[in-house]
Design goal:
This protein is mainly alpha-helical. It contains 47 helices and seven strands. A hairpin with a 3-residue loop joins strand 6 and strand 7.
Length: 924
């Protein structure tokens, strides 16, 4: 707990101190608060962190410091921050407890997803803050290991009502990007008057005014420069100033000042400082053991402590991070290697094998298989903890130290794979190039091609990756049938979404190559699904659909492992939608979302949510779809990748009949940076489908026709391109283009006959009715209603009632029309399909019915996240379960629920479901 000592004022930092005081007050009052301090070296960020630590009365303090030499050790910074709280680990939900325990090396298990680790840290901090408010301060955050920085950024974005404060300091300029978008405060330079007063505090006696002016000008209002640069300089040196017109940057001058002070110390003291600098954890006993191995007496620390450069108490702390870097850089390479060797010997190989191996690597100048092998084992441990960036660093260094060329190539390939998984695409390519200089067997060459293709897919475009994926798949065929199958799956999927295939590459050729490849290992359903899609591509929809339906049945009824599910369920759920199998679409998209949530696989979850949103919209559960969209947006914020969140929003907006909102959703998706990944064609067909739905609902059929025409241009993409055909029939029929409507209806009927499901055949009957007349049309409308009524596809069912009612009114059968339109209006208005509901309302009035419009006050009373939490709570989920699903803490869930109860006027969770599902009243 922070001491209650008086706050020490910081000269020239009134605004910054007031901001930090407000942060502490907010935390003390029961809310969370986050702030990133940014500024150049020496500007006072560390002093401000000390200020907040000293002023947080009644709060518990947690502290961590990023260290440049530790940037490759996964979870190192996070472990510093959380180590004092690990006794609370047992109170976390089991998946979170296991994930964090594995990340910190406290237990073994499958590599935890970093976002599940993030949720665990969020829950842990919230648990600690239950007893007393918690302030976490992190200095030199630009030097945190990547996964720690990403996790803290995730936590910072989810904090809301947990009595937790998080203050991070980042040295500028910095390449750090994980903390971008968080509340920040740039710490500026001191004013001249404050700079003069600070200078006077370190230079006793009189100082010539001209010299003072020059020093103030040269230090540019940097507090550390004002405090440190004058130290040790003679009056004559001060009289001339310590800057020149060609002087190095101020940060370099500050470091040079510390270098001079370190170099003035006795040699043994310098060596002790070097040990402390190379051992960034601040372990006093480890420092003592390493010093003893080098024959350094404990008294050697006294001159450094007297000079104010270091403090050795329960922990080792440098005066400033620049002192650490100065003490390390002033040493010769041989001296550094000697110190790292001593630290390796002093480190317990059982309790901290990774840091010991890292010291050995820094102590080794030439190739050494023993050290390289130990680094490779460290990489395996890091991978098991989910530290792919750390694994890549260990493997990269292991490859450098490997004497055998063949082994060096294998390790470089493994390092490249880990770098790719960590998002380091440029470095991964460099490591692949390095691996290519070593002898590799056919299997390794194929793996290198596959990895290069996946890197290109992730960092450039699907089109650029296709030739590489195909080459890898061909090479893998005789070596690894399972991996070859997965590679063809990825290649075919890439070809379906790419905006333009590369020169010389044809979709049918990829499908034929897939069919020619040997079948993969069991289970058969994977091969059946992939080959069904390939046959569909080569020979047409009708030829491949039976195989796909058979595979979907197996996916729905057979056990699917986690690994297989994450790899194959995305394609299976997508194909269920494409072949009009609503039951399989519901089962598989729900299972995929649950699996992605359970495993914390946020790389899969957004696309899984997209599948389930499309399914729930068709089921008429627009509120549920909106809740899923809110979840996708939450993930987009956490991962800084909003493309799919924008895409998912576009699936629901056109049904609501709000033109501005729909066009904004389309524009947001179109402008998203991810469009540079080769998705333009998919965006084109999807956005045109959205416009077609919107304008059909609004009765603006010319605009709907133009959009549907463009949306249906690329039918090989399946998905929404096929759905655009449904919109095309209605728009063409209503805009005086019967021939075009009939042609589209025939195409859809061919697909429906191949599928054979009630969804497909009912939709076919609905569109064929629109291009028919008299008894034939009526029979088709009735068939559509009967078939769709047997499904759970409420939206299309209601549209078929609407179309039938409109046809009956045009046939002057007003009483019959009123019956159909009343049902359509009731269902559509309950769902919230405003454009089509408005059409039904006008048609009902035209039949002479009296209709009371349904208000939307209940729907608009809650925010998207409040509605999502209300739905989950009303469904029986607990606060921890809701928090785990939405990546927020249970405290934040409770905070939102209190607002929901107040807005809806309910007192319990049991009342939520019935209150949210407000009914519709229609009177004739």
């Amino acid at each position: 707990m922070a001491s209650r000592s008086a706050r020490v004022p910081l000269r020239g930092r009134q605004v910054e101190c007031e901001t930090l005081d407000q942060l502490v007050a907010r935390v003390q009052s029961g809310h969370s608060s986050v702030l990133v301090l940014r500024g150049e070296v020496g500007i006072g960020k560390t002093a401000l962190l000390d200020y907040v630590r000293g002023s947080a009365d009644g709060c518990r303090i947690a502290r961590a410091v990023g260290v440049e030499s530790e940037m490759e050790l996964a979870f190192g910074g996070l472990h510093q921050l959380c180590a004092p709280f690990l006794d609370h680990l047992g109170r976390l939900p089991a998946p979170q407890r296991d994930a964090l325990g594995t990340a910190f090396g406290l237990s073994t298990g499958s590599p935890p997803d970093r976002f599940l680790v993030g949720l665990a840290v969020l829950s842990l901090l919230a648990e600690v803050a239950e007893k007393e408010p918690l302030i976490c301060v992190v200095d030199d955050a630009q030097w945190l290991d990547k996964v720690s920085a990403q996790t803290l950024a995730f936590v910072a974005r989810r904090l809301l009502a947990e009595r937790v404060g998080l203050v991070l300091a980042v040295r500028e300029p910095s390449l750090e990007c994980e903390l971008a978008g968080l509340p920040q405060l740039t710490v500026g330079r001191l004013s001249d008057s404050d700079a003069r007063a600070l200078l006077a505090s370190v230079i006793p006696g009189r100082l010539d005014e001209r010299v003072r002016n020059r020093i103030v000008a040269e230090t540019q209002g940097n507090p550390l420069a004002l405090l440190e640069l004058p130290r040790g300089l003679t009056p004559a040196e001060l009289a001339g100033g310590f800057g020149r017109l060609d002087a190095s940057p101020l940060a370099s001058q500050i470091e040079q000042s510390f270098l001079r002070r370190v170099q003035a110390l006795p040699s043994e003291t310098q060596q002790l400082l070097l040990i402390a600098a190379a051992e960034p954890v601040g372990d006093v006993s480890l420092l003592a053991r390493a010093a003893e191995l080098l024959g350094i007496e404990a008294s050697a620390a006294s001159p450094a402590e007297a000079a104010g450069l270091i403090t050795i108490a329960t922990r080792v702390r440098f005066r400033h991070p620049v002192v650490r870097s100065a003490a390390y850089r002033v040493a010769a390479t041989e001296a550094r290697q000697q110190v790292h060797r001593a630290l390796a010997d002093a480190t317990d190989p059982d309790t901290d094998p990774d840091r010991r191996a890292w010291h050995l690597a820094n102590a080794t100048a030439d190739a050494d298989e023993t050290v390289a092998a130990e680094l490779e084992r460290c990489a395996g441990r890091a991978q098991a903890r989910g530290g792919v960036a750390a694994a890549a660093a260990f493997l990269e260094r292991a490859a450098e130290l490997t004497p055998d060329p063949a082994v060096r190539g294998a390790r470089a390939l493994a390092a490249a794979r880990s770098k790719y998984q960590a998002g380091g695409y440029d470095t991964a390519r460099e490591l692949l190039d390095a691996a290519g200089l070593s002898p590799m067997d056919e299997h390794q060459l194929a793996q290198a091609d596959l990895l290069r293709g996946r890197i290109t897919f992730a960092s450039k475009s699907a089109g650029s990756a296709l030739p590489l994926l195909l080459e890898a798949a061909k090479r893998l065929e005789p070596l690894d049938a399972g991996l070859a199958q997965e590679t063809y799956r990825d290649a075919l999927n890439a070809a379906l979404i790419v905006d333009r295939l590369p020169s010389g590459v044809q979709l049918q050729d990829i499908a034929r190559a897939t069919l020619a490849a040997p079948p993969g290992p069991p289970p058969e359903r994977n091969d059946l699904l992939l080959r069904g899609l390939a046959v569909m591509t080569v020979d047409g929809f009708a030829a491949g659909t039976p195989m796909v339906l058979q595979a979907l049945e197996a996916f729905c009824t057979e056990e699917v492992s986690r690994e297989e599910g994450l790899g194959w369920l995305p394609l299976a759920a997508r194909m269920a939608f494409n072949v009009w199998d609503f039951h399989s679409s519901t089962v598989l998209s729900t299972r995929l979302v649950d699996l992605a949530r359970e495993t914390g696989a946020l790389s899969v979850l957004p696309s899984a949510l997209l599948q389930l949103v499309s399914n729930r919209v068709l089921a008429g559960e627009l509120d549920h779809a909106d809740a899923l969209i809110a979840e996708a947006q939450t993930i987009g914020e956490a991962t800084s990748s909003r493309y799919l969140a924008h895409y998912v929003s576009m699936v629901t907006e056109p049904w609501k009949g709000q033109e501005d909102a729909t066009l904004q959703a389309i524009d947001a998706m179109t402008r998203d940076a991810d469009l540079h990944q080769g998705r333009q064609d998919k965006v084109l067909s999807s956005s045109q489908w959205a416009k077609a739905v919107l304008y059909n609902g609004l009765g603006r059929y010319e605009e709907a026709y133009a959009a549907a025409q463009r949306g249906a241009e690329n039918l090989q993409e399946l998905g929404l391109a096929i759905r655009s055909m449904v919109e095309l029939v209605e728009a063409a029929a209503r805009s005086g283009r019967p021939a075009r409507a009939a042609a589209a209806a025939r195409q859809l009927d061919g697909m429906a006959q191949a599928s054979g499901t009630d969804w497909a055949l009912g939709t076919s009957a609905m569109v064929r009715a629109q291009v028919s007349e008299g008894p034939a049309a009526e029979a088709l409308y009735q068939e559509a209603i009967e078939r769709l009524g047997r499904t759970k596809i409420q939206l299309t069912y209601a549209r078929s009632r609407l179309l039938y009612g409109e046809w009956l009114r045009r046939e002057n059968r007003r009483v019959d029309a009123r019956e159909q339109l009343r049902i359509a209006y009731k269902v559509l208005s309950r769902i919230g399909i405003e454009g089509f509901t408005e059409r039904a309302w006008h048609e009902l009035r035209a039949t002479g019915a009296t209709v009371r419009k349904r208000t939307l006050e209940m729907r608009t009373a809650l925010t998207a996240q409040e509605a999502q939490i209300a739905r989950l709570a009303g469904g029986g989920m607990t606060n921890p379960q809701i928090g785990a699903q939405l990546f927020i803490s249970p405290h934040t869930v409770e905070w939102h629920l209190r607002k929901v109860f107040a807005k809806l006027g309910v007192a319990s969770r049991k009342q939520l479901s019935s209150t949210l599902l407000e009914g519709t009243v229609v009177t004739a």
